[in-house]
Amino acid sequence: MLIDEEESKLNKFISIVLKVTFWFILLVLLHFGRRVFIAEKFIIPSNSMMPTLIPGNKIWVNKLLYGARIYTSLKFEDHAPLKCFRIPGLRKIHPGDVICFNYPLGYNQWTVIEFKINYVYCKRVVGVPGDTIGVKDGITWNNNYSGTIGVLEQQMKINNTPDSILWRTTFMATMPFTRPMWTIKNFGPMYVPQKGVTIELDSIGRAIYGPVIQYETGSWPADDMTSHTFQHDYYFAFGDNSLESQDSRYWGFIPEDFIIGIVAGKKVRNNPNQGGI
């Protein structure tokens, strides 16, 4: 009888341990499954998206909308290339969406696009593949949308600030840092690369698209290179705090594979015309 009681207690103990282990493993799988496939939380570290997002804000990045990025290689040592595929999402990214993405110049080599696993930025999309975008007197525009994209009041600060003050107080010149010079007040027009599209290149075009061409081919375009067919889609994004944001105006295009997801509930779009997108 004593042996039966001891065996019964042991069986109950084993049953409890198995149940606890099962639920623990299930919770871990659900937690990481949510982070990989559904949504992930980030904390805003800087003021580049003010007033929309302020330092310390916790944001949820929706991965269902655009589709979760799945790594096919977990080798994330320095300068390792990104290898991944994307699960089909519910919709495309539109100008006006706020996105989280890996900073394109991951190892801070100017004009060299490289992936770095935990180097994450949050900005507002102003151009998607196939768009032509620019800035006129401080106001952002996109040829596929009427009106401005982003926080107009912040852009008007650039519009209303004399160039003499801007040159003294902020980083006035923007990519591609050639002549004629583009600035935060007047930028573009510039085409956002779309996969399969071939563009003609001159010296200015080679400067604008040089980082993309180097990323796709492994080398900077030679002086006699007159055209290029894009192998990937790219995006262009600004911070809402126009005067104090380090963004695509300075470091250029964001490869599609670098995008983590769309920030939930942070859309600002003025008079959008969604035709063709």
Descriptive overview:
The chain is α+β, with helices and mostly antiparallel strands and 277 residues long. It is built from 5 helices and 14 strands. The strands form 4 sheets. It has a 7-stranded antiparallel beta sheet. A 3-stranded antiparallel beta sheet has the order 8-7-9. The longest helix has 37 residues, at 2-38. It is elongated and about 90 Å long. The N and C termini lie far apart (77 Å). The model is unreliable at 268-277 (pLDDT under 50).
Net shape: elongated
Radius of gyration: 24 Å
Task: Please give the count of helices.
Answer: 5
Indicate the low-confidence ranges by residue numbers.
268-277
Strand arrangement, major sheet: 1-2-14-5-6-12-13
* Largest sheet entry: 7 strands, antiparallel
Q: Which H/E pattern describes the elements?
A: HEEEEEEEEHHEEHEEHEE
Helical proportion, percent range: 25-40%
- Strand percentage: 15-25%
Query: Given the helix and strand composition, which structural class is it?
Result: alpha+beta
Kindly, what is the distance between the CA atoms of the first and last residues, rounded to a whole number of angstroms? 77 Å
Q: Whole-number average pLDDT? A: 89
Q: What's the topology here?
A:
Blueprint (H helix, E strand, L loop, with lengths): L1 H37 E5 L14 E5 L6 E3 L12 E3 L11 E5 L17 E8 L4 E5 L2 E4 L9 H9 L2 H7 L17 E5 L6 E3 L2 H15 L9 E3 L4 E5 L9 H4 L2 E2 L3 E5 L14
Antiparallel strand pairs: 1-2, 2-14, 3-4, 5-6, 5-14, 6-12, 7-8, 7-9, 10-11, 12-13
